[in-house]
């Protein structure tokens, strides 16, 4: 039996694999400190669960329109307008089975063989694989910790040629926690417009922002960039709903229609019950999220302060999302080896950054309690002292 060519060179998701391994070890009774998880550890808020229970009890358990139920698409339009100053009509919205699925669908409907997609490194590990699965070529634009992971626009311009079709941006970023400023987004927009590129803007961490930092949607800058941007978002991270699998896009009508057609022949529609739950989530007040964001901010500070006491490593203090990207290059050990050994010896689960495009970093998620963070850093320190 042979597999299709398109699977050639596609790696399994390291984030999902390591998170599953950490959960399994914990279940087996090992005292694991889990810095691997790319999901909030809080329970899904009660009003959301209640809406899902109601949906089941009322028999809302059938197929829905492929691009999502109209109430949810209207709520998404309202959210885009209120939070992001983006004006989409319900026909421009497609709800999918997680933002990952939204991104995958967009690349499937846009990328032809030989098309190039610019990905800014360090990147979320699924972007290059999704581009390859769409038979496109990922073109990597490196950014560096010493520059606070800011884009070098001359390097960006140099990467563009007649095959370049899309640039993917992710702010706040997984894995670095960097956020693009208005000025940086304006430059990306200008380059995209000038070179006739589309922008795929992954804004899944938009509400997880610390200090006085602000999230700006690139599509809100002007009409020209709005008309060539697909804004991707979802409920997984903000509402602790990773398992419900609801993500969505706001896109130019032609792209939204194409995604709906593709979805109609693949998943049909996202789960009806999850759509009702997502509607309840979007109807929640932002003030309901405050304690959740404050807790993440406190955990970030705790993790950063404790890690900064270890002289052999360095880090970028994240401005958003819930990851700290730690530079281990002084230790003369690869991130993969570091992650494997620290899991084996100290039961600390973290993600080696090779699959995020860095040979120098590991990613630690602070979606875990402060007690775990303190214990985990103690073990990291101990492990480093044995190297
Ligand atoms: N984009 C980024 C940057 C992410 O970290 C994730 C995490 N899974 C996703 C998209 C997809 O999220 P989901 O499919 O759960 O909506
Ligand atoms: N996005 C999260 C992470 O980076 C969840 C796992 C995944 O979907 O890759 O860890």
What is the H level of CATH, i.e. the homologous superfamily of the largest domain?
Answer: Type I PLP-dependent aspartate aminotransferase-like (Major domain)
Q: What class, by secondary structure content?
A: alpha/beta
Residue share in helices? 25-40%
Q: Which stretches are poorly predicted, pLDDT < 50 over at least 5 residues?
A: none
Largest sheet: 7 strands, mixed
Termini separation:
45 Å
Bound molecules: 4'-deoxy-4'-aminopyridoxal-5'-phosphate, glutamic acid
The dominant shape is globular
What do we call the CATH topology of the largest domain?
A: Aspartate Aminotransferase, domain 2
Explained architecture:
The protein has 387 residues and is an alpha/beta fold. The protein folds into two domains: 138 residues, Aspartate Aminotransferase, domain 1 (Alpha-Beta Complex), CATH 3.90.1150.10; 237 residues, Type I PLP-dependent aspartate aminotransferase-like (Major domain) (Aspartate Aminotransferase, domain 2). α5 links the parallel β3 and β4. It is globular, with a radius of gyration of 21 Å. It starts with 13 loop residues before the first helix and ends with a helix.
């Amino acid at each position: 039996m042979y597999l299709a060519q398109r699977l050639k060179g596609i790696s399994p998701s390291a984030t999902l694999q390591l998170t599953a391994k950490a959960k399994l070890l914990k279940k087996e009774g090992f005292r694991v400190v889990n810095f691997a998880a790319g999901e909030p550890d809080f329970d899904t808020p009660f009003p959301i669960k209640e809406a899902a229970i109601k949906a089941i009890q009322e028999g809302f358990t059938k197929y829905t329109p492929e691009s999502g139920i109209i109430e949810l698409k209207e709520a998404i339009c309202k959210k885009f307008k209120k939070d992001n100053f983006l004006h989409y009509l319900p026909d421009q919205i497609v709800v999918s089975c997680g933002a990952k699925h939204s991104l995958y669908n967009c690349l499937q409907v846009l990328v032809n063989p030989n098309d190039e997609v610019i990905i800014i490194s360090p990147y979320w590990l699924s972007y290059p694989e999704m581009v390859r699965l769409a038979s496109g070529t990922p073109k990597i634009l490196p950014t560096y910790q010493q520059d606070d992971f800011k884009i070098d626009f001359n390097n960006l311009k140099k990467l563009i040629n007649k095959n370049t079709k899309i640039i993917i941006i992710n702010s706040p970023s997984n894995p670095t926690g960097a956020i693009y400023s208005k000025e940086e987004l304006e430059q990306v927009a200008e380059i995209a417009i000038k070179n006739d590129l589309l922008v795929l803007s992954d804004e899944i961490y938009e509400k997880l922002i610390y200090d006085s930092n602000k999230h700006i949607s690139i599509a809100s800058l002007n009409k020209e960039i709005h008309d060539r941007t697909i804004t991707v978002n979802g409920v997984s991270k903000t509402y602790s709903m990773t398992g419900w699998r609801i993500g969505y896009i706001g896109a130019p009508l032609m792209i939204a229609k194409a995604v709906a057609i593709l979805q109609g022949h693949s998943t049909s529609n996202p789960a009806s019950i999850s759509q009702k739950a997502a509607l309840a989530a979007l109807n929640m007040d932002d003030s309901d999220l405050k304690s959740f964001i404050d807790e993440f901010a406190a955990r970030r500070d705790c993790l950063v302060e404790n890690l900064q006491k270890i002289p052999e490593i360095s880090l970028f203090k994240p401005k958003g999302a819930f990851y700290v990207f730690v530079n281990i290059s002084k230790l003369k050990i690869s991130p993969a080896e570091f992650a494997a050994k620290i899991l084996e010896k100290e039961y600390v689960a973290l993600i080696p950054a090779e699959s995020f495009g860095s040979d120098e970093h590991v990613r630690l998620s602070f979606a875990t309690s402060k007690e775990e963070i303190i214990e985990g850093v103690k073990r990291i320190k101990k492990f480093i002292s044995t190297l």
